[in-house]
Amino acid sequence: MLTILLQIPEKERLRVKEVTADLSDTMAVIVHTAFPNAILTLDCFHIMKRCIDGVEEIRLRYRREAQAEQRRLEPEHRRRLKRYAARRRCYRKKHPKNYKGKTRGRKPLRKNERFRPPALSNGDTRNELLKRSRYALTQTPDKWSERQNARMNTLFQLYPKLKEAYDITNRLRAIFRSPTLDRETAKVKFREWYKDVSKCSLREKKAARDAVRSREDEILNYFIDHSTNAGAESFNSKIKGFRAQLRGVSDLPFFMFRLCTIFG
Predict the structure, then answer these.
(1) pTM check: above 0.85
(2) Which positions ≥6 away from 155 have C-beta within 8 Å?
(3) How far is CA 20 from the centre of its chain?
(4) Cα separation of 239 and 242, whole Å?
(5) Residue 166: how many CB atoms within 10 A of its CB?
(6) Which residue has the higher pLDDT, 188 or 104?
(7) Residues 44 and 222: beta-carbon distance below 8 Å
(8) pLDDT given for residue 73 in this prediction
(9) What is the pLDDT of residues 25-60, one digit of tens each?
């Protein structure tokens, strides 16, 4: 990429004032080399994705624990069915008349009855709860539906650490969404956010904090003009979708011609 960018006349490259990019160190080197007069702004969406990934790691850790607990309960369920079947056979032998045509009492268990993990108040099992809350954890509470709201309340009651990580992520999101912050006031807000993260014991959130702190100056450039590379990311997504429809590219010049014709 750097070789291609350097083919642009130097006079044109010196006119570039700002470049938005992700957290890639390679991209930072390319920008500083090809556009020496431009300031590098790290896209806020990539910063938020880094923090949301930390919440996702915590959710996956809890889900693995729930799956292990479910696997532990399945053998106990099968043993319970075997004990029930043995007691039932014994009762039939001792009381053949009482057993014949019996309609009262508890409904008998089937020998091949499927194992059903204990359900929570909203009807989900722990594994289902953690699985179905993935998308809601990436959103703010005002975008939750009524059903999602009930599910997330149950989730946060069972896993308070997950709620703590989610609240920390939302506090960082609120900093980026504030329309009144400039570079200096945003820096103060980031210092407060660092202190909030330091109080928690979640290594995933501290790793995200360290990633933000290491590139703080470039992140704070966002509050100058609130620039993002959302347009470039959207265009890149369209190109990937177009390439997927072709099942690959064999003739690169013709592919580039089609891109310029369709999207140009």
Answers:
(1) no
(2) 129, 130, 133, 162, 163
(3) 23
(4) 5
(5) 25
(6) 188
(7) yes
(8) 74
(9) 888 889 899 998 999 999 889 899 999 999 999 999
pLDDT tens readout for residues 210-263: 999 999 999 999 998 888 888 888 888 888 888 888 787 888 888 888 888 887
Contact 234, 209 (CB under 8 A): no
CB of 166 closer than 8 Å to CB of 174: no
Cα distance between residue 78 and residue 29, in whole Å? 60
Interval 120-135: pLDDT, tens:
888 888 888 999 999 9
**Quick one: pLDDT band at residue 102, thresholds 50, 70, 90?**
low
Joined together, the tokens standing for residue 109 give 């268990």
Query: In this predicted structure, what is the pLDDT of residue 219?
Result: 92
DSSP, residue by residue, the chain = -HHHHTTS-HHHHTT--EEEE-S-HHHHHHHHHH-TTPEEEE-HHHHHHHHHHHHHHHHHHHHHHHHHHHHHHHHHHHHHHHHHHHHHHHHHHH-HHHHTT--SSSPPPPTTPPP-PPP-TTS--HHHHHHHTTTGGGS-GGG--HHHHHHHHHHHHH-HHHHHHHHHHHHHHHHHH-SS--HHHHHHHHHHHHHHHHHS--HHHHHHHHHHHHTHHHHHTHHHH----HHHHHHHHHHHHHHHHTTS-S-HHHHHHHHHHHH-
Tokens linked to 125: 């099992």
Is the separation of the CB atoms in 147 and 79 below 8 Å?
Answer: no
How far apart, in whole angstroms, are the C-alpha atoms of residue 81 and residue 116? 13
- What's the average model confidence in pLDDT over 75-82? 64
Bridge partner list, 19? 40
